[in-house]
Every structure is written in C-alpha cells, then in structure tokens.
C-alpha cells in the first residue's frame, strides 16, 4: 500500500546534502550532552518532585525516578542505534519513515509536533509565574496581573509567557551553535544550583522523614490531593495513592522530567560525527540527570516529611521550612534560568521535526528553506515560535499536560518496534552503535512504555486519539499526494520502481 511506502536510509541521508536545505554541522558530543541536560533538568527536578512525593509515592519517589529512567534508558538504546544508522534531522519521525512506512512516520511526526509545542507552552506559563514570584521576593517588584496568568485565556493572556517564547525564537534563528553556547551557560547555572541543593540539604536531612519509605496504599498526607484516575483505574485495575501503584503512577508523572534526551537525536544532522557523538550525547545526558533526580528527591524528602512537601515549589519551600531563605532564593533563580533552556530546546526539537517533514514534502516544502547565513531553517523556526507564543498566551493548557508524556511514550513504542523491523529488512546497513539483546530488549522497551502510558489519565488517550484523527485527515488531504514518494514505491531495500498505469 502507498501509505506504507518507506524512504530508504540512502535517500534520507542524500536529502541532507540538497542545496538550500542543508543544515550546518557545528555540534559535538559535548554540545549534545549539554543540550540533553539543558532540557531534562527543569520542570521535573524543580516542580514535579513535590507532587509525585506528596500525592503519589512518598519518599519512594526516588524509585519512581529510577523506573522512569530505566524506561528512558531502554528507549535510549533504540534511539542511539537509529541515530547512528540514520543521522538525519527528525528523530523518531525520520526513524519511522525508514522502517515502518510513511503513514506511521506522519503519525509520529504529528504526535511530536503536539508534544513539543505543548511542552514548550506549558513550561512558558510556569516560567512566567516563577519569574514574577522571584521579582517579588528579591526586588519587591509586583508584576501586574494583566501581564501573566497561570490559566491564560483570550481575555486574560499570559503576555510574559508569549514574550519569552519570542525572545528564545530569535536566539534559535541566530544559529544552532549560538543556541548551544547560550544553553551551556544556563546549564552551568542549573548544575550549580542543583549542587547547592544537594550539599546544603544534606545538613537538614532527618532520617525519620524517610519512614515509611513507601507509605501504604490508600494513606494520604495533609498536602495530598487525589490523583486523576489512570487508564488502568478506568479499566478497573485497583491502584491507590502510595504503595507500588503509587510509585508507578508517580513514575508516569515524573516521566515528564526526562523528556528531552530524545531531542538530542533531532540534532543528528547538525552533528560533526553523528555516528559517534549522538549516542554519547543521549546516554551522557540521561545518566547525569537520572542520578541528580534520585539524589535531589532523597534530599528533599529527607528535609521535609512527604505529607508536608509543597506541591508548587518543593525545593525552594523545603529550604524555607528550615530557615535557609538564601538557598531558597538561589533555587528560584536556578528555576527561572533552567526553564529557559527547556523551552528553547523543546522548540529546537519541534523545528527539526517539522523541517524534516517539510523536506519530505508532507507539509509545504517552503518551510524547509535554510538560511545561507546562519544554517538554520529560519522560516519554520519563526512560524513555530509565533504559534507556540500564541498558544502559551491564550490557552489554558494545564489539563492537557499529560499529553506531553503520552506523546513521548507513544514515540518510544514506535522507535522500539522500528529497530526490530530495520534489523530484519536492512541487516546490511552499517551501524556504529548496535542495541544489545535484539529483538528482546526492543520489545521490553515497547512494553515498558505502553505500561507506563497506562498510568496516565484515560482522558489523555482520548485526546491523543482525537489529535491523531485530525492528523490523518491532514495527511490524506495533503501529505499523501505531495510526498516525495508520491508516484513511486520504495521497497524496504531502497530500490525504486516507478508506478505504471
């Protein structure tokens, strides 16, 4: 069938050298690792720890971070093999196109667009509140309420969130290397803040606060609020707050904290030696952040009893609770700085996915033009920046936050399956990195992602289905007919045959 036509790996690599659509290779393993750390360390470590510990897992939230990290590590092995075999912009979209077919690639590309745009918009809204709070606490400046809103709407827009998105869009348009330098500076600030949290927090840890380490199922603390029913609960599987079910539910929540390592793969085409450096960037950033998450969660739950942890600002308020206001202020500064790079790299990933889709003509090819001066696809960067800014300014997106997680996990499933498919259909391809344990580990990776998806609210599945249905309509109306592969078939070995009437 035409909708399952695949783009050969050779074609995918050849398309990266087309005049006017060629991205500039400026990144190394260090740049990619810093990109990964820059986007991973953000909302998860500064915000989600409180909700996950206080309402779901207690001190065992450290185990939740490990569970989420293991699921990501399995997927990372798949991403690393694909990225070293197909070093082309687009990440899961491009990998799926080369292994599972065009319609699957479209579905995952459409899914990633929603995931990354919604993620950047969500972070922008949160950043505006943190920035306003920091100005109030440190300088006594009361930011007018009409400038921002945690529940934005067309009549009460979040202008600060929109403004920061537009500024970061301008940075991205200047060039990828410039973006990498800005990111590196901010990452240093974030790591210093995290180090301060760990070192200073150890002096206030009380071992008694870790007891019970895993609160029993059904128990609730003073700050706890019921979690939204997960899909498993909607299907009748008895899962309560705390207990093993709480740990897994928390893992599905803090999974948001790990979103970003896969974005390293979207920059493969801009990497000098992608076969070597992309796997290093993926594993390096994931390992660093997993260790930091586990340690920070243990420190915070050791400082403050899990049932008294602040859901809104767990790290800063934990230090305020023990009288360390200076450290709390530093954490607020780190949060404001840290979320900047999260937004920037989420938008970078989104731009590269759309760029790859435009170059394949599944969306208008006008968007795939690359600036000769900066080596950046400035058209798609500018357009998506404006769209994300508008979404952040006027859309109440808190209820859709789970969509970011379910979209990423869905991508993990397809990439895991794609590794097995490409191993069978193209065993001849050179693979600088080979995932061990094929086909067992890729299958385990796909199943683990599906299980974790089940701990997300059932409504997230409904919303994902609606978005996918809209995407298939768009593909049928435009992408199928305008695709580079329209009018020809491409078998799994990359051999082309023209359609004849």
TrEMBL record:
Annotated signal peptide: none
Compartment annotation: Membrane
InterPro entries recorded: AA/rel_permease1
Superkingdom classification of source: Bacteria
UniProt keyword annotation of Transmembrane present: yes
TM ranges: 29-48, 60-82, 103-127, 156-175, 182-205, 239-261, 282-306, 326-349, 380-397, 403-423, 435-455, 461-480
Major location category of this protein: membrane
Keyword set, alphabetical order: Membrane, Transmembrane, Transmembrane helix, Transport
GO molecular function, one term: amino acid transmembrane transporter activity
One GO CC annotation: membrane
Membrane topology summary: Multi-pass membrane protein
Keyword set includes Transport: yes
Pfam families given in the database record: AA_permease_2 (PF13520)
Protein name, as recorded: Amino acid/polyamine/organocation transporter (APC superfamily)
Species in which this protein is naturally found: Kineococcus rhizosphaerae
Species lineage: Bacteria, Bacillati, Actinomycetota, Actinomycetes, Kineosporiales
């Amino acid at each position: 069938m035409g909708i399952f036509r695949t783009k050969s790996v050779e074609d995918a690599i050849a398309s990266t050298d087309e005049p006017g659509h060629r991205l500039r290779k400026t990144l190394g393993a260090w740049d990619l690792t810093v990109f990964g750390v820059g986007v991973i360390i953000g909302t998860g470590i500064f915000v989600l720890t409180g909700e996950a510990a206080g309402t779901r897992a207690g001190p065992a939230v450290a185990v939740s971070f490990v569970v989420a990290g293991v699921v990501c590590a399995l997927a990372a092995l798949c991403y690393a093999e694909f990225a070293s075999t197909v070093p082309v912009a687009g990440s899961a979209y491009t990998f799926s196109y080369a292994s599972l077919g065009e319609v699957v690639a479209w579905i995952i590309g459409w899914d990633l667009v929603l995931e990354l745009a919604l993620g950047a918009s969500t972070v922008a809204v949160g950043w505006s509140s943190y920035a306003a709070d920091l100005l109030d606490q440190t300088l006594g400046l009361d930011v007018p309420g009409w400038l921002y809103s945690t529940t934005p709407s067309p009549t009460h827009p979040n202008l600060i969130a929109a403004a920061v998105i537009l500024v970061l869009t301008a940075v991205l348009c200047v060039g990828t290397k410039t973006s990498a330098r800005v990111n590196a500076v901010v990452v240093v600030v974030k790591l210093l803040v995290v180090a301060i949290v760990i070192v200073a927090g150890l002096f206030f840890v009380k071992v008694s606060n870790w007891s019970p380490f895993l609160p029993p199922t059904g128990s609730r603390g003073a700050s706890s609020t019921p979690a939204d029913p997960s899909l498993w609960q909607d299907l009748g599987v008895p899962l309560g707050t705390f207990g093993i079910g709480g740990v897994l539910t928390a893992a599905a929540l803090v999974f948001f904290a790990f979103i970003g390592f896969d974005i390293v793969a979207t920059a493969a085409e801009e990497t000098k030696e992608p076969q070597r450096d992309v796997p290093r960037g993926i594993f390096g950033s994931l390992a660093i952040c997993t260790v930091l998450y586990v340690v920070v969660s243990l420190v915070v739950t050791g400082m403050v009893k899990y049932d008294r942890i602040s859901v809104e600002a767990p790290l800063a308020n934990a230090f305020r609770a023990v009288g360390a206001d200076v450290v709390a202020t530093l954490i607020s500064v780190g949060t404001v700085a840290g979320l900047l790079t999260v937004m920037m790299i989420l938008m970078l990933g989104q731009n590269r996915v759309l760029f790859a889709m435009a170059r394949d003509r599944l969306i208008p090819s006008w968007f795939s033009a690359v600036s000769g001066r900066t080596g950046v696809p400035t058209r798609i960067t500018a357009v998506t920046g404006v769209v994300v800014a508008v979404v952040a300014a006027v859309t109440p997106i808190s209820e859709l936050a789970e969509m970011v997680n379910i979209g990423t996990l869905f991508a993990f499933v397809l990439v895991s399956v794609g590794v097995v498919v490409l191993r069978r259909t193209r065993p001849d391809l050179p693979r600088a990195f080979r995932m061990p344990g094929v086909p067992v580990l890729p299958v385990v990776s796909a199943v683990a992602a599906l299980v974790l998806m089940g701990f997300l609210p059932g409504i997230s599945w409904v919303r994902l289905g609606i978005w996918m249905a809209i995407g298939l309509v768009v593909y049928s109306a435009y992408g199928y007919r305008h695709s580079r592969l329209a009018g020809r078939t491409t078998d799994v070995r990359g051999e082309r045959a023209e359609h004849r009437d």
